Every structure is written in C-alpha cells, then in structure tokens.
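Appendix B. Raw example, untouched.
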Amino acid sequence: MTRLATFSSLTMALMVFIAAASFAFAGEAINGRQGGLAVKGYDVVAYFTEGRPMRGRDDLEHTWQGIRWRFATREHLATFTEDPARYAPRYGGYCAGGVAIGNLAPIDPEAFVIIEDRLYLNYDKPTRDKFAENAEESVAKANANWERIGQTE
C-alpha cells in the first residue's frame, strides 16, 4: 500500500470516528459528566410520587443518556425506565433559575419545584422561590435560553 493510500485510509477512519463521536454527544446538555450521577443521586420519580426529594440507592440504578440515575424504590426505577423524559428534570438538571438568566449552574436537589407536571431544580431555595414567583415568565425565559445554551452540538 502506498503512503498516500495509507494516509487516505487513516484520514477516512478518523473522519468516521469524529462523526460518530459528534453524533453520540450531540443533543441536550445534561448536568453531570458522562457516566456520572444525575441529580446528585436523588430519585427524580420521588419528587412526583412522594412530593419530596429522596436519595436513590446505589443498587437501584438505570443509565439513560449516558448518565446514571438512582432510585429509592424498585417501583420508582420501573416508572422511570418506562418514560424517562417524563421524570427527568427540565434543562438537563441544571439550575432552572440560572437557565432563565442565561447561565448553566449547579443545583441543590432540595431546591425543587414542580410546575405544570415538570420538575425544575435550582441552585438554592431562594433561587427556586424567585423562579416560581412568576413561573410562566421564568419558564418562558428559561425555554428561550435553553434553545441557545442547552445544546451540546
């Protein structure tokens, strides 16, 4: 094989790898590193069924979108597995108040609010209260900003 043919083959292989990697990581940003824990290990279904945050168990995990999600009960795990998008927090689990002002910020799993059957997590309880104070406007701002800052491609 000539050097040019070898170079062309390597270049083509590299281009295919880059395209595949880009596709694998394209989409909506998730608050957590690849293989890390979503929502700091809290059970996202519990916010809806129990009305409060609950830590998930390390033996009750499900991987979705490359992130590990933990659950307090087998029922919560099964519920999430059936419809993860229904229970996953908005804005990839980043602070909803931060997204509303155009920033990606960490969250405190205790600082949550459910608005129109969607889970919103926040940096802290004062941020949650401000976000929920005028929920319609806050959600509209966050949605508009998420289109810009919440995409990984």
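End of appendix B.
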